[in-house]
């Protein structure tokens, strides 16, 4: 019997809800626009004029060059400003783009730090900031706290500092960690094994020292291990040569000593093995002859006693 009274209440509720959602949705859209305008403001040189001619307040941000939005919610999901000769800093306001899944600012001339606010982006899967002039430390949260992050490419910058000792603590999806050619020092943290889906680990051309952690051997999906041109010392852990998925191993140009591990039977996919310019001793294991996929082996500049 109450239905005739309930119906208008229901309708009012629906209308109220609708107004509520419209308001919240435009409020968050404004947040995204503010964040992008702050990003634009922090650009000092826009060589090709892409932002100055295209990122205009009277058009929707979803139509701006390099910006992609979600179809339903019209929030910014991807920002791709690769290779536009942009100079300037990355505005910390990027951390307000809460729906962002992919950030590509590669091959520009950005300077300054990677803002710590980036680690607020809980949906971020991909970060590419390679080939810029970023300096300072990599924000700790990015390497320890991003539960869906899959790829991070920071090669060819001027990043320094040490990697956090709890790296990979809550980044279980990380498959590609590219830090080649920076100025990162200290040890490769043992907690790296927690990135159990890691496929490509590229740390070459830095100043890593200490031993290669045995725990790298727990990365059972690794196809590429590139740690050449560092200051690594000690033995090559046997565990690494147990990873059957490995296709390329670059350990050259370090201070590694001891003998070459002989447990090579699992490396059926190995194509390239670079061990040159270290301090390796002993003989060359005859097991190397069984690596049927191997096409490149470099052993020069060591103290090995026998050849194959
Ligand atoms: C948007 O503003 C710019 C100048 O700021 C103007 O040139 C352009 O015509 C405007 N576009 C629209 C669609 O109003
Ligand atoms: C960004 O755009 C460039 C050039 O269009 C493209 O090559 C690259 O794959 C894009 N990046 C991402 C993450 O999609
Ligand atoms: C966005 O980020 C900046 C800097 O991180 C902050 O000052 C600002 O209050 C944030 N929120 C909004 C809604 O813009
Ligand atoms: C990052 O961008 C560069 C081009 O600027 C591209 O060559 C590279 O493959 C990208 N990295 C990843 C992990 O996709
Ligand atoms: C980085 O800065 C140096 C000068 O400090 C410059 O020579 C180099 O071209 C810059 N690299 C990039 C990718 O912007
Ligand atoms: C980057 O900026 C530096 C300093 O302003 C300049 O020397 C260099 O040529 C720039 N590099 C590129 C690739 O634009
Ligand atoms: C990790 O994430 C939690 C929850 O979002 C946050 O409270 C904490 O400050 C983050 N830690 C770092 C190092 O960013
Ligand atoms: C790492 O691998 C070693 C040797 O296979 C194994 O004994 C150890 O339990 C593994 N550690 C973890 C945390 O999976
Ligand atoms: C290598 O793998 C074998 C089995 O395939 C296992 O018995 C051995 O403990 C492993 N060694 C290391 C150092 O992980
Ligand atoms: C190899 O070891 C010797 C001492 O045993 C040391 O003098 C030399 O610097 C080392 N070479 C490399 C490349 O680490």
TrEMBL record:
Name of protein: Non-specific serine/threonine protein kinase
SMART domains according to UniProt: LRR_TYP
Localization of this protein: Membrane
Stored InterPro entries: Leu-rich_rpt (IPR001611), Leu-rich_rpt_typical-subtyp (IPR003591), LRR_dom_sf (IPR032675), LRR_N_plant-typ (IPR013210), LRR_R13L4/SHOC2-like (IPR055414), RLP29 (IPR053213)
Species for this entry: Salvia divinorum
Record has DNA damage as a keyword: no
Residue ranges annotated for the Disease resistance R13L4/SHOC-2-like LRR domain, each copy included: 201-300
A GO biological-process term: response to other organism
